[in-house]
Amino acid sequence: GVDSWLSLVPVDPDEEVQGEIHLELRVPGQGHPRVLRCHLIEARDLAPRDPSGTSDPFARVSCCGHTLETAVIKKTRFPHWDKVLEFELGESEPGEGVLSVEVWDWDIVGKNDFLGRVEFPLDTICTAPIKGWFQLLPFPSTAENLGGQLGALRLMVRLVEDRVLPPNYYQPLIQLLTEPILCPDQPPAGTALAILEEVTSGESRQDVATKLVKIFLGQGLSVPLLDYLTTRELARTTDPNTLFRSNSLASKSVEQFMKVVGLPYLHEVLKPVVNRIFEEKKYVELDPGKMELSRSRRWCPCRRISFKGSLSEARVRESSLELLQGYLGDIVDAIVGSVEKCPLLMRMAFKQLRRRVEERFPSAQHE
């Protein structure tokens, strides 16, 4: 466990870095003067710096007072340079000299954006060749000189470990929990599930529900479990408008059941639509306070499309509304057309739930 205060440090969004660079550095043993060969192979997962979600990266290498650069690779976060840059080492090298490799995003207007850097001591390179992937790092932080001026954050970290024993160790507990399901003639108030529901606090109810659903799924009794819990809640409910709105063991168990059983179904139905929405990167904005209409040339923040002249609020709203309605229509169509894909357990559980609710509130006004 960790419990400590950490000083906050300033962050420059332009200097936030990510990704790695693939390098090969060597100094051939023969030849005079000695030459350091820096092979810039490629980089991956660089930070996006352009509105298109990509960058125009190039590498800048500095050594022994000289600086060389690679070509710019347009519109990518995974550039492949395959470029060898050579630096002549002086008589006094390597000493305490370093080889610095920086990656930048080239911009046609304004200054280039920093993407990360890595440094290598020259004496290390001269001793043995270096090759591999290296994490890009930001410029050295000046946070040490601030003396905690920005405040601190208390962070608690702990590792939670689940110990799983052989199945026979759990049989007495499983028998106790499943007894009201397998032997429904027992008085319901005295069962382990009923007592568990009474003594479980609101904070721990989520964890208890998660464990119960997993146990009963393993026993093939998840649908009877939900029927048992929801029936008890229905019996306590007098106003149908408040049905299943309490933070009860029944509502939490249904929620966890849907997460465990229904998550693959959710992904299968909605993932294609959601992926397409992200890939199209269409501009949608309905909030007038966030529309930029006064600029003579307006750039869409998600794609590089410029509109000459000012856009009217009505035009942006109309376009956004049309896109949004189209996307929502696709989502609804995907859901409505997915009946056969819906897991059988979910369909059984909710069919039973509907029947129980109709029994509890049979009048026509609740139909």
From TrEMBL:
Sorted keywords for this record are: GTPase activation
GO molecular function, a single term: GTPase activator activity
Domain C2, chain residue ranges per copy: 17-134
InterPro entries in UniProt? C2_dom, C2_domain_sf, Ras_GTPase, RasGAP_dom, Rho_GTPase_activation_prot
Matching entries from SMART domains are given as: C2 (SM00239), RasGAP (SM00323)
User: Is the keyword Protein transport in the record?
Assistant: no
> Know the name of this protein?
RASL1 protein
Q: Which Pfam families does this UniProt record tie to the protein?
A: C2, RasGAP
Keyword Coiled coil attributed: no
Q: Enumerate the spans annotated as Ras-GAP domain.
A: 204-367
